[in-house]
Every structure is written in structure tokens, then in C-alpha cells.
Write a structure and sequence with these properties.
The protein is an alpha+beta fold. It has 3 domains: 55 residues, no CATH class; 110 residues, Tyrosine recombinase, N-terminal domain (DNA polymerase, domain 1), CATH 1.10.150.130; 191 residues, hpI Integrase, Chain A. It has 15 helices and 10 strands. The longest helix is centred in the middle third of the chain and has 20 residues. It is elongated.
Length: 397
């Protein structure tokens, strides 16, 4: 393997490049050109080790990111990934990856191109959370290409620690904490909402409020997983947005959640009334299939807020010149936030707050870190000043 300088003249202008001349693992002579000697030396050192270890892939033997992406999507589909997950991967590829680096060969990706790619995503208006998801998908794409022998290194995985550490800390600093009365319904608002629940939305939303289940877990819940005698339900499956039933997305999602007396009584009456579903769904739509999210939010949750007075000004006036109002909480996830805060602050209701590990298990979070990052600031704190004073007395007396 050699690195040599090449000089030539074009239209009277002298130009220079650096050539790496080497033989790959298949005894094929390869030439690669660089603008600077430093770039050439770096490539030569890396290529030497890759050829020695038998995993070098030349540019001509590689493919573009776009081609590798199509192979990756097909592999994920064959592996039986959920339809919603495949759709998300396809969006990452079509909307965020291909427009910027789709034409680049996998072998040309390096730390510099990754930095530039991330920065361009941010400059084009992608959120920090979206950039992170796209980078995870890109890393998975390259890992698939590695398995196919199309690239020797996964530069995303190699750079993950260096790329993500400072950005992750900055994101945590910038992320606003969930606030009761803003992101999380206050207890008084939940009382108003509960009092305004009507019809077939009442049992569903009461269950959501006092179990913290995700929307997909509610719509996939079946009667065999509800034990009204033992006052507990089991989360064993979920319904995606295409109304297809599948397992919880993570192992932690498979869990047991206790039921309150109001929920038990309501579900008992709901069961006696009879829900028409061939698959035993607890909250089917009128055709016996998993209910869609939009009517739950619009016709159930938001309508109850309007009736209960949990509203905010819309900034518009009606025909009579009176201010129009909107439901204060737009998404069902705010109910899940309430359940978490309610479990954490049970002392306010005369009970005992639950340990963080129990809250994690009730919510089906994959780790205690996720629970504490989201809700840690809601856990009750003692009188720090008095605690420190007591510690000082114990130390010095």
C-alpha cells in the first residue's frame, strides 16, 4: 500500500492530488484519490487494517445510502416488524435521509459527513428528538449493509458516544418539565372531566385515568385480561393505528395494573351491557373492531372537557361576538401523565406515594431512568433546609 502525490496541469493551472494505491482482500488493485495528504494517510491506515482483517469494502463494491435503505426496509418487513414501525422507518428514509445523503456511497460516510448531516437536519427545521430518531434509523440501515458486506464500518455506531453526549445533555437542559395544570391535568380538572364523562366513552376514559394505559393498550384490551374479582387488569397486547393486534412494543409493556373501585364497578356494568366484539375487546368501535384514536380524543376526551369547563380561549369569536373556547388538553397522553403524577403524589390524597420503581412498572416504562427523567421532579421533597440542619447537628454535636 502506497501514498503518492500526483501533479498535473489543466488549462495552464497546476493541480495536485494524493493517491492511495493498494490491493484489497480479493487481490484487486485499487486507487483512491484525496485532496490532502492527511486524508490519504488516514484512509491508508484504515484500509490497511481492514484488508488485514478481511472486512475492507472498496467504494466501487459499495452502494449508495438510498439503495442500502431499500434493502434495509425490505429486511425489516421480512423480519415481521409492525406496520407502523415500517411506516416510521420509511418516513425517516424518504423525508430525512435520502434528500440529504441518499446519493452518497456508504463507504464515504465518516465523522465529518455525519456532523454535517445532523446540522443540516437541524437547520432545515427538524427537532432534536427527530434528529435522534433519524440517526438511530441510519445506524440500523448501515448495520444491515454491514451484514451484506456492502460497508466495513458503521460510522454511526462508532460516533454515537461523541455525537450524542453533549447534544443529549443540551436537550435535557432545554426540555421543559411537565407542569400540572399545563401539561398534566390538575386533580380538580380530572374531577370535572370524570363528572362530565358520558356514554361509551365513560368506561374507556375512566380506565385510562386510573390505570395510565397507553391509547393502543386501551384499544387492544380484551375481557380475558380484566379480572374484576381480583381488581386487576393485565396488559398483554396492543392495537396499532391500523387496528392490528400485536404484543406490547417492549417487554416492560407486558404488565399488571390494579383497578380502583370506581373502575371495577364501571367495567362490571359495561360488561353486563354487552360489548359486541368477536375478539372480546373491552372497548371496541361500533363495528366490533379496535377503536381509532381520533374519536376517543375528539368525541370522548375533548368533549368531556368542554362539558366540564376544562377549557382555554381559542382567540376567536362566535357569530354573537362571544369568545370561543377549546378543550384545554388536546392529547390522550395527558391522562397518562396525570396517572403518573397521581401515583407519585398519593400523600396529597391521604395515602402514601409509590416508589419510583413501582411507578415505572405501572406505566410500562422500559427503565427507571425513563420514569425519573420524565416525572422525577414531581416526587415529593422534604424540607431540605431542616434536613441539612439536622445533618449538621448530628455531625457536630
Amino acid at each position: 500500500m502506497s501514498v503518492r502525490k500526483r501533479t498535473w496541469t489543466t488549462k495552464g493551472v497546476e493541480k495536485t492530488a494524493w493517491i492511495v494505491d493498494y490491493v484489497d482482500g480479493s487481490d484487486t488493485r485499487r486507487l483512491k484519490t484525496f485532496k490532502t495528504k492527511k486524508e490519504a494517510d488516514t484512509f491508508a491506515a484504515t484500509a490497511h487494517l481492514e484488508v488485514r482483517d478481511g472486512n475492507h469494502v472498496a467504494d466501487s463494491a459499495s452502494v449508495t445510502v438510498e439503495v442500502a435503505g431499500k434493502l434495509w426496509l425490505a429486511a425489516r418487513e421480512r423480519a415481521g416488524r409492525e406496520r407502523t414501525t415500517i411506516d416510521q422507518y420509511r418516513q425517516h428514509l424518504d423525508l430525512h435521509i435520502v434528500p440529504f445523503i441518499g446519493g452518497s456511497k456508504l463507504t464515504t460516510l465518516n465523522a465529518s459527513t455525519l456532523h454535517a448531516f445532523r446540522e443540516r437536519l437541524q437547520d432545515e427545521g427538524r427537532s432534536q428528538a427527530m434528529v435522534k430518531k433519524v440517526m438511530v434509523s441510519l445506524g440500523s440501515l448501515i448495520a444491515d449493509a454491514q451484514d451484506r458486506g456492502l460497508v466495513s464500518r458503521n460510522v454511526v455506531h462508532e460516533m454515537r458516544g461523541r455525537l450524542g453526549a453533549s447534544d443529549g445533555r443540551a436537550a435535557l437542559r432545554a426540555k421543559a418539565k411537565l407542569r400540572v395544570g399545563v401539561d398534566i391535568p390538575a386533580p380538580s380538572e380530572i374531577k370535572a372531566i370524570v363528572g362530565a364523562l358520558e356514554g361509551r366513552w365513560r368506561p374507556l376514559l375512566l380506565t385510562a385515568i386510573f390505570t395510565g394505559l397507553r391509547a393502543s393498550e386501551l384499544t387492544g384490551l380484551t375481557w380475558p385480561d380484566v379480572d374484576l374479582t381480583k381488581k386487576v387488569l393485565h396488559v398483554r397486547q396492543r392495537a396499532d393505528r391500523y387496528k392490528e393486534i400485536g404484543r406490547p412494543k417492549t417487554g416492560a409493556g407486558d404488565r399488571e395494573v390494579p383497578l380502583t373501585p370506581m373502575v371495577v364497578n364501571t367495567l362490571r356494568q359495561w360488561k353486563l351491557a354487552g360489548t359486541k366484539s368477536d375478539t372480546g375487546l373491552v372497548f371496541p368501535n361500533l363495528k366490533g373492531k379496535p377503536e381509532a384514536l381520533q374519536p376517543i380524543v375528539r368525541d370522548g376526551y375533548q368533549a368531556a372537557q368542554m362539558r366540564g369547563g376544562v377549557v382555554v380561549a381559542s382567540g376567536k369569536l362566535d357569530a354573537a361576538g362571544k369568545p370561543l373556547t377549546l378543550a384545554k388538553y388536546t392529547g390522550l397522553h395527558s391522562i397518562r401523565h396525570f396517572y403518573a403524577s397521581w401515583c407519585i403524589n398519593r400523600r396529597a390524597d391521604g395515602g402514601l406515594e409509590l416508589p419510583g420503581k413501582v411507578v415505572q412498572e405501572r406505566l410500562g416504562h422500559s427503565s427507571i431512568t425513563m420514569t425519573m427523567d420524565t416525572y422525577g421532579h414531581l416526587f415529593p421533597r422534604g424540607d431540605d433546609g431542616e434536613e441539612m440542619a439536622a445533618a449538621e447537628r448530628a455531625l457536630l454535636l
